[in-house]
Design brief:
InterPro entries: DUF1091. This protein is mainly beta. It has a single domain, classed as Distorted Sandwich (Ganglioside M2 Activator Protein, Chain: A), CATH 2.70.220. Helices cover about 10% and strands about 45% of the residues. The protein is built from one helix and nine strands, in the order ββββββαβββ. It has a five-stranded antiparallel sheet, with helices on one face. Strands 2, 3, 4 and 7 form a four-stranded antiparallel sheet that branches. Strand 8 and strand 9 form a beta hairpin.
Length: about 150
């Protein structure tokens, strides 16, 4: 997990998140430093693959282009992240795609494990880097990057 440094004022503070334990669960606090709405806040997600796990990243053809943050949470996170981000179970951060604007505040993340059950079958095996980028008036305002190891289910 890596924090992506903003070009303008920080929108979301991920500094209190940690990966802990053998299962590598995400725990900590995420702080939204202002209400995030469709008028001035955007988000994008890009993916990179490294099939040999040697940090030779290749940008993948699919991702989420810069668009309003509520649209991204509804279409992408609400669909593909629903098996991972469970409102009221492992977080109180309303990324279910139903809450907009996303209210300013501090939100817990507890024992969050990435669950790929709702992911499309086209995700390749090997290392996968996912960069979640946030914008204010289309200026980069920080983000977070995760590296996952995608393996065949046994």
């Amino acid at each position: 997990m890596e924090i992506l440094r903003p070009e303008v004022d920080l929108l979301i503070d991920f500094r209190d998140l940690r990966i802990i334990g053998r299962e590598r669960s995400i725990n900590g606090t995420v702080s939204l430093l202002e209400d995030l709405d469709t008028k001035i806040h955007q988000m994008s997600i890009d993916f990179h693959n490294d099939p040999n796990n040697n940090r030779q990243w290749k940008e993948m053809l699919f991702g989420v282009p810069v668009m309003d943050i509520c649209h991204v949470t509804r279409l992408f996170i609400g669909k593909y992240g629903k098996s991972t981000i469970q409102l009221g179970v492992n977080t109180n951060l309303p990324l279910d795609g139903k809450t907009c604007p996303l209210p300013k505040g501090s939100y817990f993340v507890k024992n969050l494990l990435v669950n790929t059950d709702s992911w499309p079958d086209i995700i390749p095996y090997g290392a996968l880097k996912a960069n979640f980028r946030y914008y204010k008036n289309y200026k980069f305002a920080g983000g977070i990057s995760f590296i996952l190891d995608i393996e065949k289910k046994h």
